[in-house]
């Protein structure tokens, strides 16, 4: 008696199951990668190992962003302060506070303070802090009113759409160089008018990137 199907067809159900499992795995990994909230998690405010208040240090005491993030004007990444930076003040101010135990231990041992990262761009994105702040983009545009935050929270989505909105209309977001680190300052277009903002951009040869705007509309 002839067989209706070849013997190899017996393996078909197993092959289908394996294919479905592999496909589900690929979809899950892809979803976790592309839909991850790591760079769009607005409101994310993790508990840090040291309860550092920007509202106090920046908002009330007037500490300049560059005192702690000292290489933001030269590097692509805004560095975190070392324990030495903290101890410049806290070897005299609240030097025995239990809240600063982690900082003192870091200062004594050389081990980094285990800060929890808050802002994360996608792996395929290259963002250079120095380029942006040197071209008139204030910290507040991406990070929000840090100077009012007791606990730093993720303020903007940092999605492609967020970046493109700025690149398509930089005139509405750039600030006078003297106001870059004044988080209460207004954009140049508001402070001095659209003409002043456009002149600022023209003088620095800043214009919307056609390679992006041509596709992402």
Task: Summarize it.
The chain has 217 residues and is an all-alpha fold.
What would you note in describing this structure?
With 217 residues, the protein is mainly α. It has a domain at 71-78 and 118-213. Helices cover 41% and strands 0% of the residues. The protein contains eleven helices and no strands. It has helices at residues 12-34, 54-60, 65-68, 83-90, 101-109, 129-134, 139-143, 160-168, 188-191, 194-203, 210-213.
Give the topology, please.
Layout: H1 12-34, H2 54-60, H3 65-68, H4 83-90, H5 101-109, H6 129-134, H7 139-143, H8 160-168, H9 188-191, H10 194-203, H11 210-213
Helix pairs in contact: 4-5
Outline, from the CA principal axes? flat
Q: What is the typical, i.e. mean, pLDDT?
A: 86
Strand content: under 5%
Number of beta-strand segments: 0
Helix content: 40-55%
Largest sheet: none
User: What's the order of the H and E elements?
Assistant: HHHHHHHHHHH
Helix-strand makeup class: mainly alpha
Computed Rg: 25 Å
Distance between the termini: 65 Å
Query: How many helical elements?
Result: 11
What are the segments in which pLDDT stays under 50 over at least 5 consecutive residues?
none
């Amino acid at each position: 008696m002839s067989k209706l199907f070849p013997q190899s067809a017996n393996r078909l159900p197993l092959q289908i199951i394996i294919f479905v499992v592999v496909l589900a795995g690929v979809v899950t990994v892809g979803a976790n990668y592309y839909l991850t909230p790591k760079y769009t998690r607005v409101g994310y405010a993790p508990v840090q190992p040291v309860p550092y208040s920007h509202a106090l240090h920046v908002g009330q005491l007037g500490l300049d962003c560059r005192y702690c993030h000292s290489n933001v004007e030269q590097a692509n990444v805004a560095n975190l302060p070392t324990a030495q930076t903290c101890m410049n003040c806290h070897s005299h101010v609240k030097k025995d506070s239990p809240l600063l135990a982690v900082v003192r231990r870091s200062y004594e041992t050389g081990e980094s303070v285990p800060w929890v990262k808050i802002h994360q761009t996608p792996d395929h994105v290259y963002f250079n802090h120095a380029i942006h702040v040197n071209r008139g983009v204030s910290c507040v545009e991406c990070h929000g009113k840090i100077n009012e935050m007791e606990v730093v929270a993720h303020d903007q989505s940092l999605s492609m759409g967020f970046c493109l909105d700025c690149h398509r209309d930089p005139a509405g977001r750039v600030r006078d160089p003297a106001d870059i680190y004044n988080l209460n300052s207004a954009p140049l277009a508001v402070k001095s008018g659209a003409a002043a903002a456009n002149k600022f951009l023209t003088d620095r040869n800043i214009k919307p990137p056609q390679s992006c705007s041509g596709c992402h509309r």
